[in-house]
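Single-chain item
Fold in token form
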Amino acid sequence: MDISAKKLEAIEALARHRHFGRAAEHLGVSQPTLSRHVQELEAQINERLIDRHTRDVSLTPMGQEILSYTKQFKAFQARAKTRFEARREGKSGHVVIAALPSLTGQIIAPLLRDLNLTHPDLAIDIMDLPSRNIRETVLLDQADIGLDSPADDNFEGLLAQRLTTDALCVVANHDHPLAKRDTIEISELISFDLIGSSPGTSLRHLTDQSFARFHLTFQPRFELNQVVSVLGLVTFGLGVAVLPISAGYALPESCKRVSLVGAAKRVTWMFRKDHTPLDPAVAHVMAKLKAEHAL
């Protein structure tokens, strides 16, 4: 049964104004047109919808039921319109971000905090992965956006842009002699027990590169995959760590950052898969990341 919106609006206007003349004026139609809409609807459902009285009209029980459906339908239309507009503007949807664990606190956490307040219908999932897996994850459509600081700039099949840079620093326990310093030369570090990232990681490549600038070899006492593990050893005074400044966003109170003079800077890239339609939600998240962090 095809019931037009005009017929439903006629019932709603009569329920509100209880008078054919006032209801017709409200709808901007003639009184005969309004009467015809009501009669056609009554014929469609084979029920009387209006009780006519001396000075006004009222809805029959079936008319009240039709009015209830009309209100529900209009509420659904309003919700659908809001949802469609939000989807078109990228304010709703689902986005998956694959990123280095050390970038979660620096870049993703502030993004989530802001979007949770302004766009609660926009769902974001995070995949914290080693650098070697992030580009592959995006290429395989397992993530929409990649945030990585790779040791190379091979972004074949991806659309990439430099997002931000991040200097290396030394993190020391407050009881360590280096904690009394604000800066230190790389050449001075070789006399201390060092804690670094595991070989093969992008951070280890950057650290090795920084030492090589001064014809030195980075030889850490401990080599670990996770920043939280590194900071755990530093907290207990088992050495000093070479980390990006951002990796210590949750630096323990017992630790201090010391600037590392002459160190290379870590470049964070943002990328998505090339030759694929840009989802509005993905575009919105990428635009927000650019606005917050782009060089």
Q: What stands out?
A: The longest strand covers residues 158-173. Residues 204 and 280 are 36 Å apart (CA to CA).
